[in-house]
Specification:
Length: 423
């Protein structure tokens, strides 16, 4: 018997996803094949362990699937080792911490209130409770990472690990500079590339695998796969002086990371999600995906330019990747106001702290906007000025119902005809 209630709610959500403008920078629309693999009978299988080394019988097929996911991921990023079992990006980071650090060890991460992530040392997260965090942030004037301050804090605090990566930062990273100071103090570098991983896989941003010891990413943001995480390492990484060296510890570090994922922090892997990851990694190696990622970047750059023309303040003055952070203080709005007003126009964003914010995380002074999801729907440069116009109308509406209804009508007219799984 069909569960009418659950499936009618799924249809309701599908309708919401179809008619609106999805601008949450961490979301995307997975392909029908990714969704089919994720909704498959692979969910029935227990497979604790790794391909060829399981604690359950009957794993001969899921072994092939998981190995395929590992091999495709390594090919996609030029990695030499990977674990595809983390259930999420947070789990991937937790496994790295467990493998590389002891409780009480010092870590240095990007400040959450400047665009960083909870798992990079926030006091409300395991990473800030079990380890001793210190933080770097952005320069008040430029809105870009203050690398001088990062180096200063690294030398003062002597962390065992420096974490780079963000959830609301629109600029590329100087991995060479971070690795240089890490070498000086004997720290490991973890790059969490959850947001820009698709742009990195298609060589549209600097490659962290060249310089960082360990890489984590989610698989559902720009990578457009199922909800999940992975960990990777490259064997021949460079030192900051351009010399390539063989990461002699790859095998033993890989074994430590594998053991940290299972049995360290997880039980049985989600083989249905791993099957869907394999599909997504296959898709990400196609020319169509490379074209898609270029379009994501083009759309983001144009959108930020049009917002600037309309007098909005974009933190750091623009974007190199798929997202931008708008500081709404100059427009007399909070992030909470903006999220609510845009929601009434069927435009989904998330309120977000801006650097040096005076509001609480529940209110905030900004919104974060990303172009990965709308680009999957088929949005091109020609649509961007109209999208910014609709957003501006909704934000400046002061809650006027007529204006918001018109903005919602315009959103739906633009989005409803576009298919959900357009490539
Ligand atoms: N929630 C993710 C994001 O929106 O960036 C990070 O965990």
């Amino acid at each position: 018997m069909r569960d009418e209630l659950v499936f009618s709610l799924i249809n309701e959500e599908k309708e919401r996803q179809t008619k609106g403008l999805e601008l949450i920078a961490s979301e995307n629309y997975a392909s029908q094949e990714v969704i089919s693999a994720m909704g498959s009978i692979l969910t029935n299988k227990y497979a604790e362990g790794l391909p060829g080394k399981r604690y359950y019988g009957g794993c001969e097929v899921v072994d092939k699937i998981e190995q395929l996911a590992i091999d495709r991921l390594c090919k996609l990023f030029g990695a030499s080792w990977a674990n595809v079992q983390p259930h999420s990006g947070a789990q991937a980071n937790a496994a790295v911490f467990l493998a590389c650090l002891k409780p009480g060890d010092k870590i240095l991460g990007f400040d959450l209130s400047h665009g960083g992530h909870l798992t990079h040392g926030s006091p409300v997260n395991f990473s800030g409770k079990l380890y001793q965090p210190s933080f770097y942030g952005v320069d008040k004037e430029t809105g870009q990472i203050d690398y001088d301050a990062l180096e200063k804090t690294a030398r003062k605090e002597n962390p065992k690990m420096i974490i780079c990566g963000a959830s609301a930062y629109s600029r590329d990273w100087d991995y060479v500079r971070i690795r240089k100071v890490a070498d000086e103090i004997g720290a490991l570098v973890l790059a969490d590339i959850s947001h820009p991983s698709g742009l990195i896989a298609t060589q549209l941003l600097n490659d962290p695998l060249d310089y960082c010891h360990i890489i984590t990413t989610t698989t559902h943001k720009t990578l457009r796969g199922p909800r999940g995480g992975v960990i990777m390492m490259r064997e021949n990484i460079k030192n900051p002086y351009g010399l390539t060296w063989k990461n002699g510890n790859l095998k033993s570090m890989g074994a430590l990371l594998d053991a940290a994922v299972f049995p360290g922090i997880q039980g049985g892997p989600l083989e249905h999600v791993i099957g869907a990851k394999a599909v997504a990694f296959g898709e990400a190696m196609t020319p169509e995906y490379a074209t898609y990622m270029k379009q994501v970047k083009t759309n983001a750059k144009l959108m930020s330019d049009v917002f600037l023309e309309k007098g909005y303040h974009i933190v750091s003055g623009g974007t190199d990747n798929h997202c931008m952070l708008i500081d709404l203080r100059s427009k007399g709005l909070t992030g909470k106001d903006a999220e609510e007003l845009l929601g009434l126009a069927d435009i989904t964003v998330n309120k977000n702290m801006v650097p040096f914010d005076s509001e609480s995380p529940f209110v905030t002074s900004g919104v974060r906007i990303g172009t990965a999801a709308i680009t999957t729907r088929g949005i091109k440069e020609s649509h961007i000025p109209s999208i910014v116009e609709i957003i501006d109308q909704a934000l400046m509406s002061k809650g006027n119902k007529e204006i918001l209804d018109k903005a919602r009508f315009n959103t739906r007219s633009m989005m409803s005809p576009l298919p959900l799984f357009e490539w």
